[in-house]
Amino acid sequence: MTNIGKNNFKRVWFITGASRGLGALIAEAALADGNAVVAAGRNAAAITERLGESSALLSAALDVTNEAQAKAAVKAAVEQFGRIDVLINNAGFGLLGAIEESSDADVRHMYDTNVFGLLNVTRAVLPVMRSQRAGHVINISSIGGYRAGAGFGAYSSTKFAVEGLTESLRAELKPLGIYATVVEPGYFRTDFLDASSLKVAREVIPDYDETSGNVRRVAAKINHSQPGDPAKLAKAMVELVDAPAPPLRLPLGTDTLKAISEKNAYVTQETETWKALSASTDFSAS
């Protein structure tokens, strides 16, 4: 593949977890929009098989938990296309089970990918964007990154971390001409609830049957009948990148909009109820 300058493409996207699911669909939408794409994933051959071969595409082998691989993939991207304009931190997986049911090994593995892996890739890409004084970091969170619930507590905690990291990145990068956005998809009709993307806690504690146990049953029932259209999500990502003033948060799906509205109302009501006690902890005015 020959070295092609950035001017031949609208933008250069770097997408993790691009071999399947939302990552692959986002890569396809970006390519169709006239962008160059660095599609990164554990299996580069699978990415090429899915997306084909093109002068606008670089398939990069990347396990996001490996910091050296992240740096190597970014170096290859810059050598190939000269710059990186958009980073989509999409790689990740879920864990379904009550907090007590979730093993230490499973939770640590998920954090290594969803949080520390995201940080590995972001740290590798940011020097490029800082040198350009331009770029857009987009972190894929979840409806569970704004509102946690039974059965997805450990998973939601990783996405809460992603939300906090993105808020800080937004403040730190804005003076450098770089945007940061956290995207919060609801339930989209992908393979997220399959074993390939969702680990189910092996331990089952009967006391949680009405809460987390019920979530396990519901997840199995709605798998591949979720309300969100993943192809429309991919197109929305292109629109987000094209926006002259992209938001800090972008909820996607009516279920996410509903969840945000309900949580905001709950927080407002609870804060008002406990406001007097909350305010009583300041030093008294002299």
What would you say this structure looks like, in words?
By secondary structure, this protein is α/β, with parallel strands linked by helices. The chain has one domain: NAD(P)-binding Rossmann-like Domain (Rossmann fold), CATH 3.40.50.720. Helix content is 48%, strand content 15%. The longest helix has 29 residues, at 104-132. The radius of gyration is 20 Å and the shape is globular.
Entry summary:
It contains nine helices and nine strands.
CATH topology: Rossmann fold
CATH superfamily: NAD(P)-binding Rossmann-like Domain
Strand content: 15-25%
Pairing-aware structural class of the strands and helices? alpha/beta
Task: Kindly state the percentage of residues in helix.
Answer: 40-55%
What is the average per-residue confidence, as pLDDT, rounded to a whole number?
Answer: 91
Q: Strand sequence of the main sheet, in spatial order?
A: 3-2-1-4-6-7-9
Domain module tally: 1
CA-CA gap between termini = 73 Å
The total of helices stands at 9
Name the overall outline: globular
Low-confidence stretches: 1-6
The ordered string of helix (H) and strand (E) elements is EHEHEHEEHEHEEHHEHH
Indicate the radius of gyration in whole angstroms. Answer: 20 Å
For the report, how would you describe the main beta sheet?
A: 7 strands, parallel
